[in-house]
């Protein structure tokens, strides 16, 4: 009996060890399959993420290009407005300068005419005074000549 009990114990231990080894082999295959599946899922998710990132980058690039074009167009429009305003201001300044020059010319001509008239009046006055003095001198000489002849 002892031998049969001992044999039973040994066989039980042997079956237990064999069963554990078998379970380990089954578990290893399952873990290997699960790891393979997880790796495939991770690779698929990475590929999806890469595609999503590429799409978003493309959208951001397009948005940046659109915004840059808007800014460029706005700047060009603003530059055109500034150019037009500058041209208008230059024209106004030119017209104002021409008007001022015409006014100054008219004022100078008027002043020259006034000076000419004043010079003519002074010359006439001086001529008359000279004539008067000459007439007075002649008259005085005539008087002296008459006084001396008497």
Give descriptors for this structure.
150 residues, mainly alpha, 0% strand
Structure in words:
The structure is a single chain. With 150 residues, this protein is mainly alpha-helical. The protein is built from one helix and no strands. The protein has one helix spanning 2-149. It is rod-shaped. The termini are far apart. The mean pLDDT is 84.
Q: Report the principal-axis shape.
A: rod-shaped
Instruction: Give the ordered list of helices and strands.
Output: H
Largest sheet: none
Low-confidence stretches: none
Percentage of residues in helical conformation = over 70%
Structural class label: mainly alpha
InterPro entries: ECP63-like_dom
Domain Late embryogenesis abundant protein ECP63-like: 50-92
Biased composition (Basic and acidic residues): 48-130, 141-150
Protein name: Late embryogenesis abundant protein ECP63-like domain-containing protein
């Amino acid at each position: 009996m002892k031998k049969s009990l001992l044999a039973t114990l040994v066989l039980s231990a042997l079956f237990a060890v064999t069963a554990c080894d078998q379970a380990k082999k089954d578990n290893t295959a399952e873990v290997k399959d699960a790891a393979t599946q997880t790796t495939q899922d991770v690779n698929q998710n990475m590929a999806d993420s890469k595609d999503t990132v590429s799409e978003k980058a493309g959208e951001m690039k397009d948005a940046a290009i659109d915004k840059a074009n808007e800014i460029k167009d706005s700047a060009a429009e603003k530059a055109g407005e500034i150019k037009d305003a500058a041209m208008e201001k230059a024209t106004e300044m030119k017209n104002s300068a021409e008007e001022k020059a015409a006014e100054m010319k008219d004022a100078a001509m008027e002043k020259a005419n006034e000076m000419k008239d004043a010079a003519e009046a002074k010359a006439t006055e001086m001529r008359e005074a000279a004539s008067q003095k000459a007439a007075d001198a002649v008259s005085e000489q005539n008087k002296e000549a008459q006084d001396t002849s008497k």
